[in-house]
C-alpha cells in the first residue's frame, strides 16, 4: 500500500486548453445542436466525450459541416485552406487555435518568405504538425524527433531554419537542435522558450517527482502528445511510469511494494481525473505538493466568439429594453471562469 502521493504542480489544463474548452462550452450553450468542431477540441477522451453528449460533432473534413451550421476549429491549429473553408460553410466560425501555435504558424510563413528551408520538428500525423506544415508546404519538412535529421535534405543548403511542434519534449527539441547546429552552422532557430511553457513546466515537474517516487502515473489520453512526452521523461529518469486515462486504468500490480507514487497530468487532462486517481491510491500519509513554478497565463476567448457574444448581448439588451445597457457580459468576465467550471456545466 502506498504511503504517500507526490502531486505535481503545475499539471493538467494549460491556458490554451482552458481557452478552447470554455469557447466550445459557450458554443453549445448558445446554439442548438449540433455544433461542429474540426478535429478533437483537445486531445482528451473525457473532454471529447462530454462535448459529444452536449451535441458537438467532431469531424475530420470541413466538407462534413452542413452549410450554415456553427463550427469551431480545434486548439491545435488548422491549415489555411481549412480556415477559409470553415468560414465559407459556417454561419459562425470560431478558431480556437492556441496563441502559441499561431506564433509558430507566423514564423513558418515568415521564414518561408525569406527563402529558408525549414526543419519542422514534430510527430507524424499529429493535428498540430499537419496544420503547421500546411502554412509552408514547399519550404517545410517534417522531422520526427525519434528519427532525427536523416530524413531532412535542404534545397539550398545555406539558409536553414528550425521550428517545432509546441508540445514536444524539451529533450526531443534539444536532440534535433544539437544535430542541426552541427550540420548547419548558420542555422536560424526559434528560442527555446518558443516551446509551449506548459509542456516544459510539466516536464520539469515530473523530473522533480522522479527524484523521490517509486512509481509515476501520468493522467491523460493516448493521443495526447504532451502526455506521452511526460511518460518518456519519467522513464528516462529510470522510474516505472505509466499513462492512464483515469483511476480504472491503474493495475494493482504496479502498486505492490511501492511507498511513494508521483502523480501528474497532461495539459488536456481534467483535474477531476487526477483526484480520482489519488482516491484510488489512498495514500496512508496523504499528499505532498511538488511545485516547480507558478502559472498565471491567461488566453482570451477567440476574437470571433467575443464579437459574436458582444453582438448577441447588445441584441438581448435592446430586445428587453435593458435599463443598464453596456454592462459587462459573461464573456468579459471570462478570466474569472475556469475550464473545470465550464466542463461542470456539461456534467464533467
Account of the protein in words:
With 348 residues, the protein is an alpha/beta fold. The protein has a domain at 99-194: 4-hydroxy-3-methylbut-2-enyl diphosphate reductase, catalytic domain (Cobalt-precorrin-4 Transmethylase, domain 1, 3-Layer(aba) Sandwich). The protein has helices at 15-30, 45-53, 80-89, 99-113, 127-133, 170-183, 197-210, 225-236, 271-281, 303-319, 339-345; strands spanning 4-9, 35-38, 56-59, 71-73, 93-95, 117-121, 140-143, 160-164, 188-189, 215-219, 241-244, 260-265, 287-291. The strands form 3 sheets. Strands 11-10-12-1-13 form a 5-stranded parallel β-sheet, with helices on both faces. The protein starts with a strand and ends with a helix. The model has no long low-confidence stretch (mean pLDDT 90).
- Cα separation of the termini: 29 Å
Task: Give the fraction of residues assigned to helices.
Answer: 25-40%
Low-pLDDT segments: none
Biggest beta sheet attributes: 5 strands, parallel
Under CATH, the topology of the domain at 99-194 is which?
Cobalt-precorrin-4 Transmethylase, domain 1
Second CATH tier, the architecture of the domain at 99-194: 3-Layer(aba) Sandwich
The CATH H-level homologous superfamily of the domain at 99-194:
4-hydroxy-3-methylbut-2-enyl diphosphate reductase, catalytic domain
| Order of secondary-structure elements | EHEHEEHEHEHEEHEHEHEEHEHH
Radius of gyration (CA) equals: 22 Å
Structural class: alpha/beta
Seen as an oligomer or otherwise, the chain set is single chain
Mean pLDDT, all residues: 90
Strands of the biggest beta sheet: in what spatial order? Answer: 11-10-12-1-13
Overall shape: it is flat
Task: Count every helix, treating DSSP H or I runs of 4 or more residues as helices.
Answer: 11
Per CATH, the class of the domain at 99-194 reads: Alpha Beta
What is the number of strand segments? 13
- What is the beta-strand fraction? 15-25%
Amino acid at each position: 500500500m502506498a504511503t504517500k502521493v507526490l502531486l505535481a504542480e503545475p499539471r493538467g489544463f494549460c491556458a490554451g486548453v482552458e481557452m478552447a474548452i470554455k469557447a466550445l462550452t459557450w458554443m453549445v450553450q448558445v446554439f442548438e445542436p449540433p455544433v461542429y468542431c474540426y478535429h478533437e477540441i483537445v486531445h482528451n477522451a473525457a473532454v471529447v466525450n462530454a462535448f459529444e453528449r452536449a451535441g458537438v460533432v467532431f469531424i475530420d473534413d470541413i466538407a462534413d459541416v452542413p452549410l450554415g451550421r456553427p463550427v469551431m476549429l480545434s486548439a491545435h491549429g488548422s491549415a489555411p485552406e481549412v480556415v477559409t473553408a470553415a468560414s465559407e460553410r459556417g454561419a459562425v466560425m470560431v478558431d480556437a487555435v492556441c496563441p502559441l501555435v499561431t506564433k509558430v504558424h507566423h514564423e513558418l510563413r515568415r521564414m518561408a518568405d525569406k527563402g529558408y528551408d525549414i526543419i519542422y520538428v514534430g510527430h507524424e500525423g499529429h493535428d498540430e504538425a499537419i496544420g503547421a506544415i500546411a502554412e509552408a508546404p514547399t519550404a517545410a519538412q517534417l522531422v520526427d524527433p525519434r528519427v532525427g535529421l536523416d530524413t531532412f535534405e535542404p534545397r539550398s543548403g545555406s539558409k536553414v531554419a528550425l521550428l517545432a511542434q509546441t508540445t514536444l519534449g524539451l529533450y526531443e527539441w534539444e536532440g534535433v537542435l544539437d544535430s542541426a547546429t552541427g550540420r548547419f552552422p548558420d542555422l536560424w532557430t526559434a528560442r527555446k522558450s518558443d516551446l509551449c511553457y506548459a509542456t516544459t513546466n510539466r516536464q520539469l515537474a515530473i523530473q522533480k517527482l522522479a527524484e523521490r517516487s517509486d512509481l509515476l502515473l501520468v493522467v491523460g489520453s493516448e493521443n495526447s502528445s504532451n502526455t506521452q512526452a511526460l511518460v518518456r521523461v519519467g522513464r528516462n529518469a529510470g522510474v516505472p511510469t505509466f499513462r492512464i486515462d483515469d483511476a480504472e486504468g491503474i493495475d494493482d500490480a504496479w502498486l505492490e511494494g511501492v511507498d511513494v507514487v508521483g502523480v501528474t497530468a497532461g495539459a488536456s487532462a481534467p483535474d477531476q481525473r487526477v483526484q480520482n486517481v489519488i482516491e484510488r491510491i489512498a495514500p496512508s500519509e496523504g499528499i505532498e505538493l511538488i511545485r516547480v513554478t507558478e502559472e498565471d497565463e491567461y488566453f482570451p476567448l477567440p476574437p470571433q466568439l467575443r464579437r459574436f457574444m458582444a453582438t448577441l448581448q447588445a441584441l438581448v439588451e435592446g430586445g428587453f429594453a435593458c435599463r443598464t445597457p453596456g454592462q459587462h457580459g459573461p464573456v468579459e468576465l471570462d478570466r474569472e471562469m475556469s475550464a473545470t467550471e465550464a466542463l461542470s456545466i456539461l456534467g464533467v
